[in-house]
Amino acid sequence: MTSTGAELPGMREDYRSASLDAADLAETWHAQLLAWIADARAAGLPDANAMVLATADDEGRVTTRTVLAKDVDEHGVTFFTNYTSEKSHQLRQTRRCSVTFPWLALQRQATVIGTVELVSREDTLAYWRTRPRGSQLGAWASPQSAVVRDRGTLDDQLATVTERFSGDEEIPPPPHWGGWRITPTHVEFWQGRPDRLHDRLRFRRTDPGWVVERLAP
């Protein structure tokens, strides 16, 4: 075992920065999530809206990757991606996913579990117009999740689409690119506490409405 490997059992942080009780929560899960994203941004955390997205195919194989939340409201959490990617194929198969926002520097995380749906083309276009031109070109150039021969292949594809749109002031979104909205059934807010007795408060959707529950750590 390497020296780093030998150190793994003892690598841990003792969380003591804050606590979380039901009285501390906003009235809705989305208001609470937006507040914690704002806290992370105010603390200078990079990519405060980054979330780890977990999806599975119809045979139960699970995949995770990091994406960026681009909208949070009472309807759900929205992110944008290539519709031909592995994540989109899996979302179409199961229509379910989970995301976790890992604000480790704040000793916090939030997890959203729910079903997914495609956002409207109008919503996709509205977000697309906010993207830098380079990101727009990249969306056209990359066959996301496909095997490519080498980096040069991607660079060549980027050069091709850059030339294609060189005379266009606005670049349209690719037909294979757009948004997914996660409609939550459960949203958990986790605050690290000493001795691994963390605070876990969960919004759970029921027929009458949302309820808040405390979970054992």
From TrEMBL:
Keywords assigned by UniProt, alphabetized: Flavoprotein, FMN, Oxidoreductase, Pyridoxine biosynthesis
Pathway: Cofactor metabolism; pyridoxal 5'-phosphate salvage; pyridoxal 5'-phosphate from pyridoxine 5'-phosphate: step 1/1; Cofactor metabolism; pyridoxal 5'-phosphate salvage; pyridoxal 5'-phosphate from pyridoxamine 5'-phosphate: step 1/1
Any one Gene Ontology molecular-function term assigned to this protein's record: pyridoxamine phosphate oxidase activity
Binding site for FMN: R65, T66, V67, L68, A69, K70, F80, T81, K87, Q109, Q144, S145, W190, R200
Top-level enzyme category: oxidoreductase
Record: residues binding substrate: R12, E13, D14, Y15, K70, Y127, R131, S135, R196, L197, H198
Domain Pyridoxine 5'-phosphate oxidase dimerisation C-terminal: residue ranges: 177-217
Recorded family membership: Belongs to the pyridoxamine 5'-phosphate oxidase family.
NCBIfam families the UniProt entry points to: pdxH, PRK05679.1
This protein's name: Pyridoxine/pyridoxamine 5'-phosphate oxidase
Species of origin: uncultured Actinomycetospora sp
Lineage per the UniProt record: Bacteria, Bacillati, Actinomycetota, Actinomycetes, Pseudonocardiales
